[in-house]
């Protein structure tokens, strides 16, 4: 900065004001300083300025995997919204969903200097009574029922599952079979619970769910089991990849979709319209989840009033060609 000041013939304070965009510098002087910066290859030390201000313009994201559609698209949405607000993102993956793993990630983010953290839990870890996040860090949690202790943003998993199940019942199917996500997944648990409660409220039989792991292969294996049951005419799969596997199994067993069986997924991935037939599915608004996560963190960073609680982003059912009334209706 002193070198720039000497070359431009101004004070170091003027150079500082130019580097921070201070409006008090006249335009001719600003251009003189900028020319000196360019000649000397000077770049303001944003890290040093951040330490002085106590604001780093960076948000951290902690998560366990990017392999699932929900996690990857949520991170993408957070990144887009953060960039729009002028913030960068530091991503910290955690190998195992444990208390120590999460706290270790917070330690790393503290060393990297972030203003706040989004924790994408996905699993039931925050249900554990002994889990406590660092008290001095601004935090928003995604995909968890920890709303009593932390600000939580989540898709309305339960309502999406209810919409899917009711749609199939309203078409005239006697009941709805379910291919669930893994038992440790918070979202999968919410969807399974809502599916079961919707059937019970309608006075319908509740078939045993087929356990999947979000992959198309697990949906395929579940589909092979269900395809052997001639009474299975409607299936709600907990995500679109498993729905794809289910549809493949039924096609291979000579059972048509939606003629013999209707299938509904969850997520509304970009390729859902290209399934054969196009997949009826529950749309998740990941962009809105990302926006609310970032806005929630920024409110905390600005010391605006707030409190723990769960902010649910609505879902909507997208009707396509994979569902129809059962034969004879």
TrEMBL record:
<keyword id="KW-0238">DNA-binding</keyword>
<dbReference type="Pfam" id="PF13377">
    <property type="entry name" value="Peripla_BP_3"/>
</dbReference>
<dbReference type="InterPro" id="IPR046335">
    <property type="entry name" value="LacI/GalR-like_sensor"/>
</dbReference>
<dbReference type="GO" id="GO:0000976">
    <property type="term" value="F:transcription cis-regulatory region binding"/>
</dbReference>
<dbReference type="InterPro" id="IPR010982">
    <property type="entry name" value="Lambda_DNA-bd_dom_sf"/>
</dbReference>
<keyword id="KW-0805">Transcription regulation</keyword>
<dbReference type="GO" id="GO:0003700">
    <property type="term" value="F:DNA-binding transcription factor activity"/>
</dbReference>
<protein>
    <submittedName>
        <fullName>LacI family transcriptional regulator</fullName>
    </submittedName>
</protein>
<dbReference type="InterPro" id="IPR000843">
    <property type="entry name" value="HTH_LacI"/>
</dbReference>
<dbReference type="Pfam" id="PF00356">
    <property type="entry name" value="LacI"/>
</dbReference>
<feature type="domain" description="HTH lacI-type">
    <location>
        <begin position="1"/>
        <end position="53"/>
    </location>
</feature>
<dbReference type="InterPro" id="IPR028082">
    <property type="entry name" value="Peripla_BP_I"/>
</dbReference>
<keyword id="KW-0804">Transcription</keyword>
